[in-house]
Design goal:
Elements lengths: L17 E9 L4 E10 L9 H10 L3 H16 L8 E5 L1 H7 L8 H8 L7 E5 L8 H14 L2 E7 L6 H7 L3 E4 L1 H4 L6 H17 L2 E4 L5 H9 L4 E2 L17 H8 L28 E2 L5 H10 L5 E6 L2 E7 H8 L4 H5 L14 E3 L4 H9 L5 H4 L1 E5 L2 E6 L1 H18 L9 H14 L3 E9 L1 H8 L1 H17 L7 E6 L2 E6 L4 H15 L6 H6 L1 E5 L5 E5 L2 E9 L7 H15 L6 E5 L5
Parallel strand pairs: 2-3, 3-4, 4-5, 5-6, 6-7, 7-8, 9-10, 12-13, 20-21
Antiparallel strand pairs: 1-2, 1-8, 10-11, 13-14, 15-17, 15-20, 16-17, 18-19
Helix pairs in contact: 1-2, 2-3, 3-5, 14-16, 17-22, 18-19, 19-20
Length: 590
């Protein structure tokens, strides 16, 4: 490798390195947006990989000059390619500083661009993560100089190494490339969806276009596109090659243009959501273990609204003094004279009920249902990360748990963990906004009430869980959305073109498996003798499944409520159909 001592030096004999190019794709249009240039060493040798080349350059303390050499080789090749378009070229932070560091004369990069007749407006410099810059201020000046030339800047591998929010904010890059750590497998990762959605929010706020790296799977591509990522790069679109890729293969372009939206993987609504966010924590002064009993009395008299006081030792609660029991004792004859100057620690309850601010519904339900119900009169201590923050009452706890359970049911059904009414409406709105062609299928059980009344709600829950499991099995997890409205009512939003076949198979499977939930006597007789929904005793056959389907063409409806209403009408018609499946033509609302 020839030695280059300054950015303005030119190597006498370039080594056998050559550029390869990988396409970057516009996920909104299905077209090639540009190419990233990647350097390769001699084929068939250990130095073919860029990692080996960079490692060797670093070992010889010549990394910056090697990177500059790579840029020159890339520009030389790029200038020979017709209609090349936009070039993305990699530089570490220190290399960019060196390339833009000319004082009083044109900088090295500007001279290289002019020498090879490459327009700066066609070039984007990717700040790589080989190393952190020694001077953030110098890097900032280099980026400003680069923008002044008309070139653009991309922050590479966001989510790894030194590529962080602070650098994003300080440098204000034109592009941010999201690392494959977050993009690969996103179609099956609720956590990755949440993180990338947050990055999209940052991009919108800061005016930055996003590029998803490492796209290798069509399902991941759909999710990334629907999250609003502008561009993508990865083996799914093309591998690095010496030649440019002028266009995407038509099947891949059609995949990007497909109006069907991805069903985002969602974390099942936690059965234990945080509830104390809505609980009004009482801000009460804390007592130290050495606070005299007389002072406790004075504090209670000064704050008549307080039901209790916590004793806190170095931020950690150790005892709780209840107002009513304390004041009753304090009023007894000679109590003040005997106990007034003693520390309060020995007087309070040494086993107070302590509730962490991030406690969940299930653990709080355990408190409500436990045999120890002292918290109803004594209240409880609220902590955050085990540090005292205030007090709560039994009434507040009951109300907070109840409200949290209701809210959780709106987002995810507590029995099936399937999305509830709010996520259903959100997904319908996404389908309508995207112009997707879909079918809304309302599933409901026949004769379920008699079954539930005869065997009890726990057996009824088994039947509902059977329907939930089968509905999920017969839906495509990446195209179709299964929601649980409540009770035995489900709504499946199909984008799968074979939705009719899926509905028929779902009905057949349920009707075949449901009799297994009946006792042997009822299985032999084919049903249950009992009261129907009108209170009339009659024989009721096995529960079966009805599905009312309505095809929703693009542009017919604007509101999720209209789609739900159409599906409900279809469900009513399906209850009367012998096959259990009715397809209704959607009718625009007046």
């Amino acid at each position: 490798m020839p030695r280059q001592t300054r950015p303005n030096a030119t190597p006498a004999s370039p080594p056998a390195i050559s550029p390869f190019f990988q396409p970057i794709v516009d996920l909104r249009k299905g077209t090639v947006f540009g190419h990233e240039a990647l350097i390769r060493g001699p084929a068939g040798t250990p130095l073919h990989s860029p990692q080996a080349l960079l490692a060797l350059a670093a070992a010889e303390s010549r990394l910056t000059e090697f990177e500059l050499l790579c840029v020159e080789v890339i520009l030389a090749q790029w200038s020979r390619l017709p209609d090349a378009g936009r070039l993305f070229v990699n530089m570490s932070a220190d290399t960019l500083v060196a390339a833009m560091g000319g004082a009083g004369t044109a900088c090295w990069l500007e001279r290289m661009l002019a020498h090879h007749n490459v327009s700066a407006r066609d070039v984007t410099v990717e700040l790589t993560e080989q190393r952190a810059t020694g001077s953030p201020e110098a890097l900032g000046r280099a980026v400003e100089a680069l923008h002044a030339l008309g070139a653009r800047v991309a922050l590479d591998d966001f989510g790894e190494g030194h590529s962080n929010l602070r650098r994003w904010k300080d440098l204000q890059p034109d592009f941010v490339k999201i690392d494959k750590l977050l993009t690969q497998g996103i179609a099956n990762s609720p956590q990755s969806v949440a993180l990338v959605r947050a990055i999209v929010g940052f991009g919108n706020a800061l005016g930055t276009e996003l590029i998803a790296e490492g796209v290798e799977d069509a399902k991941d591509l759909h999710v990334l596109r629907d999250l609003g990522i502008a561009h993508g790069q990865g083996y799914l679109f093309g591998r690095p090659t010496p030649a440019l890729q002028p266009a995407l293969p038509e099947p891949m372009a059609a995949t990007i243009r497909d109006t069907r939206i991805a069903v985002m993987p969602h974390a099942s609504q936690p059965s234990q959501p945080n509830v104390l966010r809505s609980l009004s924590v009482i801000q009460a002064p804390a007592l130290s273990p050495q606070t005299p009993i007389d002072e406790v009395s004075a504090i209670f008299q000064k704050h008549p609204e307080l039901h209790a006081l916590a004793v806190v030792d170095k931020g950690t609660p150790v005892s709780l003094i209840n107002r009513q029991s304390f004041m009753n004792d304090y009023a007894r004859m000679y109590f003040r004279e005997v106990h007034g100057r003693r520390p309060c620690l020995a007087y309070g309850s040494s086993t107070p009920r302590i509730v962490e601010r991030e406690e969940n519904v299930e653990s709080l339900l355990g408190i409500l249902m436990s045999e120890d119900q002292r918290y109803l009169s004594e209240g409880f201590i609220v902590t955050e990360k085990k540090r005292y923050v205030g007090l709560g009452t039994g009434d507040q706890l009951v109300r907070a748990v109840t409200e949290a359970r209701i809210e959780a049911a709106r987002h995810a059904n507590p029995l099936t963990s399937l999305p509830g009414n709010i996520p259903i409406n959100i997904h319908i709105a996404r389908l309508l906004d995207s112009g997707a062609d879909f079918a809304a299928c309302y599933a409901d059980l026949n004769n379920f009430k008699v079954f539930n009344d005869h065997y009890g709600y726990w057996r009824g829950d088994e039947m509902i869980l059977l329907l939930a499991r089968l509905a999920t099995q017969h839906a495509d997890a990446h195209r179709d959305f299964v929601g649980h409205i409540g009770g035995d009512d489900f709504l499946v939003l199909f984008q799968s073109p074979d939705w009719h076949r899926r509905c028929t198979a779902l009905i057949d499977d349920f009707n075949r498996q449901a009799p297994g939930l009946y006792d042997e006597a009822e299985r032999q007789s084919g049903g249950i003798e009992g009261e129907d929904r009108h209170g009339v005793v009659r024989f009721t056959p096995f529960s079966t499944l009805s599905i009312g389907a309505v095809r929703i063409p693009p542009g017919m409806f604007s509101h999720a409520e209209d789609v739900a209403s159409e599906a409900a009408i279809a469900k009513h018609d399906a209850k009367q159909a012998a096959s259990g499946l009715t397809v209704r033509e959607a009718r625009p609302r007046a």
